[in-house]
Each structure stands twice: as C-alpha cells, then as structure tokens.
Amino acid sequence: MSDAALLEVRNLRLSVRTDEGIAQILDHVELVLPHGHILGVVGESGCGKSTLARAVLGIVPKTATIESGEIRLEGEDMLRLSDREMTERVRGRRIGFIPQDPYLALNPVFTIGSQLLSPLRWHSPPTLRTERERRGHLVSLLRRVQIPEPEAVLERYPHQFSGGQRQRLMIAGALACGPSLVIADEPTTALDVTTQLQILKLLKSLTEEFGIGMLFVTHDFGVVAQLCDSITVMYAGQTVEAGPTREVLADPRHPYTRALLACHPDRSDGLTGIPGLVPSPLAPPTGCRFTPRCTHAVEVCSRRTPRFVSDSPGHLVSCRLADEHRKVGL
Amino acid sequence: MLRFVLRRLLLVIPSLAGLLVMTFFLIRVVPADPAAALAGENATPAQVAEIRRQYGLDQPLYVQFAVYLGQVARLDFGESAYSRRPVSLDIKLRLPATLELTVTALLLATLLGIPLGTIAAVHHNRWPDTLLRILSVGGIAVAAFWFAIELQLLFAMQLDWLPLRGRMSPGLTAPPTLSGFLLIDSLLAGRLDAFRDALRHLVLPAFTLSLGGLATIMRFTRAGVLETLQKDFVTYERAQGFPPHALIWKFVLRNSVVAAITQIGLLFGSTIAGAVVVETIFDWPGIGFYTVQAILTADYKVMLAVTLLIGVIYALVNILVDVVHGLIDPRLRERG
Ligand SMILES: Nc1ncnc2c1ncn2[C@@H]1O[C@H](COP(=O)(O)OP(=O)(O)O)[C@@H](O)[C@H]1O
Ligand SMILES: [Mg+2]
User: Fold this and answer.
1) What domains appear along chain A, each with residue ranges and CATH number?
2) Does B259 touch chain A (CB under 8 A)?
3) CA-to-CA distance for B13 and B219, rounded, in angstroms?
4) Which of A19, A20, A25 has most ligand 1 atoms within 8 Å of its beta carbon, as the pocket-test mutant?
5) pTM of the model
6) Which domain does B94 fall in, by range?
7) Is B56 part of any domain?
8) What is the pLDDT of residues A265-294, one digit of tens each?
9) Which residue, A48, A87, B52, B298, is the most exposed by fewest CB within 10 angstroms?
C-alpha cells in the first residue's frame, strides 16, 4: 500500500452537452478518501453525486466531457486510462459498485449466477482459476451477506428476490473481485427503514472485515452519522464543506450544511426542506452557487467563488463567512 | 415449461375454429349463388340444379357445415380444376418447396436483421446507423419483383454464377423425399452434389424474399437495443467491468429481441404472401406459384385449401414464437 490516499479527486469539472446547451454538472469537486475509511458524499437530489460516482468509475455518458481535474485511485490517475484499461483493470476489480435501486440494477433475463460470476471470470484473481473455485468463492460471499441457500440462489432470477435480498446480492457482487474501493450510490434509498438499517450494518462490518474504503453517496445525514468516518457536502456540483463526521455534524460551517442539518427530521421542529430549489446546471448562479438560497448572502457572494480552504485542521469549507472568520482570527 | 407450451396450444383452438367458420361462409354463403358460380357461365338451369344437389348446397346450412368439417378433417378438398389431381396431393407435393423457401428467407432475415439492428443501435445516429436505416427503408420500399429481376439479370444472366430459375437442375435426380426440404434430404442421402445444386437455386429467391422481413427485424432490434441501453442494469454492468462486446451481444441483446421475435411470427404471413410473387418469378414449384394458377383459373377448392393451410401454419409459427419468448424471459414462463 502506497502513501497515497485510496481515492483523491482534485478540482474536477465536468459538463454535459444537452439540447438546451452546455450543463456544468460538476464544478471544482474535491475529495479525499483514505484507505479503509468510509466517506459520505451528501447533498440534495440533483447536486451531481451520481455523476461524481460515474466519473470515478469512468462511465459518464457519451455527451459528457471532463474539462479538468484529477481522479487518483491509490495514486494512479484514472483519467489517463483508456476505456479498455478501465474495463480490464479497474471497474469491478479495484472498484466495486453498489447501485441505488436493486430492483432495476439486475438484468431480468439472466440468472444471478451468470450475472455475479461473469466479472469473476473476466477479472479472475489469481487464487480463483477454475469455475468451481469461483463458484465456491461467490457462494461463501453470499453466505457472508446472509443470503439463505446460496448455491440454489445462483440458478434463480432477479424477480424471485425481495428488495433487501437483491441489495445483498449487489453487495456480494461488488465485493466479489476483492476491490479496495466500493462506491455505493444511495444503496438504501429504495428500501424500507428496517431493511435500510440491516444493510447499513452489513456494509459497515464488511468494509471493516475486508479493509475496504467506501464512497457512500446519500442525501441523508442520519445515515452518514451512523456509518461514515468523514463527510463531503456537495451543492449544485460544487463541494462546499468537508471534514470528519463528528466535527462537521457538531460544528457545520457552511450555511448549506447547516440548512441541510436543520431540516433533518431528527433535528427540525417540523420544518421540512430548504426554501428554493437546486439550480439547473444549464444556468448555474455565478459566484457561490448557494447564494440565491442563502440567508447570509451578501453582494460579494454572487461575484466571487469562495476558495475551498481549511477552516480548522481537516475541516474545509468554501464560504465567504469562513474566510472572514479566519481573517479576524476566529 | 410444458404447461406453458400446452397453454399456448389451447389458446390457438379458438383462432383455428374462427378460421374454419370464416372460410366456410366465404365459400358457401357469400357468393350469391355458389352453384351457378361452380357450374360456369354457360350452364343451363338443369345443370345448375344438378350441381346444387351434387355439392349438397340444397341442404340446411348446419348440415353443410358438418359436411365441410368432415372434409377438412379428412383433408379432402376435392380435385383441382387446373391440375386435375386431388388438391391435397398437389399441396403435399408443393408445400415443402414453399416452406423451404420461406423458412430460409426468414432465417436469413433473422440472422442478418438482429446483428445489423444491434450494430445500428450501438452506433446510434452515426454513419453505420444512418446507412442501415436507409437500407431498411429501401428493403420495404423496393418492390420484390423488381429487385428479383435485377438479381436475376446480374447473378444469373451476366455473371452466370447462379441458376436463373427452378429448384434443382433438370439433369439431376432428386434425393429420396424425407422432409421435403431438398437441402435436408440431400444431406441425409449423402448427396453433396444435390445439396450444392439446391443451395445455388435457393440463394436468389430466398434472399429476395427475406428483404421485407430483414428490414422489419432490423428496425425492431434497433429500437429494442436502444431502449435496453437506457436501463439501470446496463449502467450497473458497465460499472462492474463487463467488457463492451459481452455487454452488448449477450446481456443487452437478450433483453432487446422480444419485440423483434414477435415480428418474426407476424412476418411469416407476409413472407408466405411474398412467396407468391417470388415463386412466380423464379419458377419455384411451390404453393405460391400453384395458388396464382388457381386464382387465375378461379379454382376455389385450391384457394380454400391453401387458406386453411396457411392459417394453420401461421398459428403454429406463432406458438413457436411464444415458446421462444418463454425461453428468453423467465418472467413470462412463470406467468404461464
Ligand atoms: N446525461 C445527462 N445529461 C444532462 N444532464 C444530466 C445528465 N446526467 C445528469 N444530469 C444533470 O446533472 C445534475 C446532477 O445529476 P446527478 O448526478 O444524478 O445528481 P444526484 O445524484 O446528486 O441526484 C442534475 O441536474 C441532472 O439533471
Ligand atoms: Mg443520484
């Protein structure tokens, strides 16, 4: 293991060509995920979280362009790799993926076995040479994620499983080739509350057991508090705040983080939601993109994009207020 | 799966019954006076009356229908006015030729249409897609007879690569009839010379006949693949490192061909209809050619037998299509 972080994203800008013009979907995204940690990426729907996950996996749509930035996996720049190298060496193998909706993510006309075993065949780790070894490996993983009768499950089709079971299958699939990073895109959003809790517990214990780092995308601070070591908050394609979970939750510095936390059901007094909507990436506000919805906004906010700087050790924030605090020595 | 197949078979019964009733009415009831039609223009009233009695047209309708059902059950369609042989014998001799031609044409249409449609979808809105779309519109628009004649001129007359007409060269003795398909029978008899000859005769008519179906299957496959490519599971499979060729040709394609395969069943009808033209141009000794003769000579017994026959074949082909659907999609199988 090198000194480099497991995943490091620097200054990532991504735009998409649409019929109505160029949409700036990611703008100066920054994040760092150390080996074996769980990083929560939080933001309202439409903030670019899934696009970020897809950019890391190298599967952005054909209409998208990565304009600048770096995506480093264990120090290696992913943006330099060809699609073929990403397929052969990275996706499935070094990065496992857990999708948002397990109802839609499984191919309805293939058995579970043929879907989950295929990546093992293509990315076969040296310890799993024969089909029997690969089946054995998958069956033990399925057992580990608490799927009953794992041998029989390989012959069944996706529609024969409940949502929670399917998400367990996806987890086993993500872990199958022994990745060092797992990207989970809102993996519990489509599930009921009890199942959600079980899946989160399972993810936590699995990442510890296998020493895997996880990029956990969610819009729910409650989930982050339970699961994540650190947080990156995204708003309208920009990272606005990042830091250790406990610190960000106890002392949120960005008005957007505060507003999000304030409307979480555990904390709010019946108020729901931040007034206003996430702006369209086709016409993002100039300067700080949160300005139109921010209660602390002043004239300068819409003129200049604030720098993403350290507020206290390990706690970064991108806001004029934080800048001013620093200047006056707060 | 067995239950699934049996259910399909049961579901066909009402359609076949409908076909029997319809043909009966078309032939016995719709003509103002079928006996006069049968007797011909110059018949005397006495002759017409004789024919009416002979054919049982003076009996009540339900008796006539029962008689009709009995005839159909015995495959007794009377004698063809044109060939002066029992219609069922003529059909038995000619049907395999048409089936061989039609099945080959549909096979060609499927084996070319599905990959071409997939290629078009993968290159959505780029030149391979545009080219294939233009060709597929052409496949429908170009009249089969015009295209067939062009092919004959080029490959048979000018280049002399392929025979101009017929099913087998005159000097060659046909292999013993087992399946009625010359390609299969010559292989079974170990007659490679006959196989080669039959294949050479089959190329032009089968290709001509395949064009309409080819265009349709291509369009439906293209639309199906484009739709599947939008699905979440494709994103998931890419994220998990499925290589592009396996992703498209295995995991996407199997989700995309259901609509195209439904078309294959429906195309069987229009392809048999197309065989009428193609058989006439290529002198192909099949049912289509025979039916044209029957229509020209107003040989209604032949028309009746052919209508029933095609109806039954059409129903069987569509059962086959349903079974293939069941094999492709496990959810259909369980729904029964
Ligand atoms: N292929 C695309 N073409 C155009 N706009 C897109 C595309 N993908 C995403 N977007 C837009 O980018 C923004 C971020 O989307 P997404 O990454 O899915 O956000 P999140 O996962 O945070 O909800 C949204 O405004 C969405 O409409
Ligand atoms: Mg999303």
Assistant:
1) 7-94+180-328 (3.40.50.300), 105-178 (no CATH)
2) no
3) 32
4) A25
5) 0.84
6) 87-335
7) no
8) 666 555 567 888 889 999 989 889 998 998
9) B298
